[in-house]
Amino acid sequence: MLESALALVPAQPHTWLRRPETGLFMVQGRVGGTGNRFNVGEMTVTRCALRLNCGTAGVAYIQGRSHHRAEMAAMADALLQTDHYRPLIETALLEPVSCYLNDKSQTLARKAQSTRVDFFTVAREAGGSDAEAEGA
User: Fold this and answer.
1) In this structure, is the dihedral angle defined by the CA atoms of residues 81, 79, 86 and 100, taken in order, positive or negative?
2) Which uninterrupted H or E stretch holds 18?
3) Are the C-beta atoms of 42 and 28 separated by less than 8 Å?
């Protein structure tokens, strides 16, 4: 998706502020989502920064080792900051990504809803009264 969106834009000369480089990030979690932090492990990340000849800078941090993807993400970031290319990149890249994420979210919500259990009904059908169900 990123590559096809950038294919719509003529090649943009740029200078590197930071060439693509790969390293590790420490990923942290929290007990129960809100408790104390702990280190989950390390994740491979590639980062880069570039400046278009018009002066706009683009920065990217991506998961994985793809220098090419990091460069494309930084280029998209820079182009989104220009008045000339912003509408094109928004239409060709951001709208499809937004639709994909919305569809995925709705699919997950439907899947979660299908596994929902109404405990009040289960307790009532088990032959106990409402007062017994609340006390259990």
Assistant:
1) negative
2) strand 14-30
3) no
pTM: 0.75
Token reading at 54: 């018009």
The token pair that represents 5 in the structure block: 């969106």
| CA gap 41, 53 in Å, rounded | 39
Taking alpha carbons only, the member of 23, 9, 24, 17 closest to residue 87 is 9
Q: Which of 18, 72, 27 is nearest to 45 (CA)?
A: 27
Closest alpha carbon to 24 in 42, 2, 7, 50:
42
Helices (H), the chain: 2-7, 67-80, 86-89, 95-114, 119-125, 130-135
In angstroms, the CA 57 to CA 42 distance is 28
Taking the CA atoms of the chain, what radius of gyration do you get in angstroms? 24
Answer whether 71's CB lies under 8 Å from 92's CB: no
Domain locations in the chain as residue ranges:
2-85
pLDDT digits (tens, 9 = 90+) for 27-77: 999 988 788 999 999 999 999 999 999 999 999 999 999 999 999 999 999
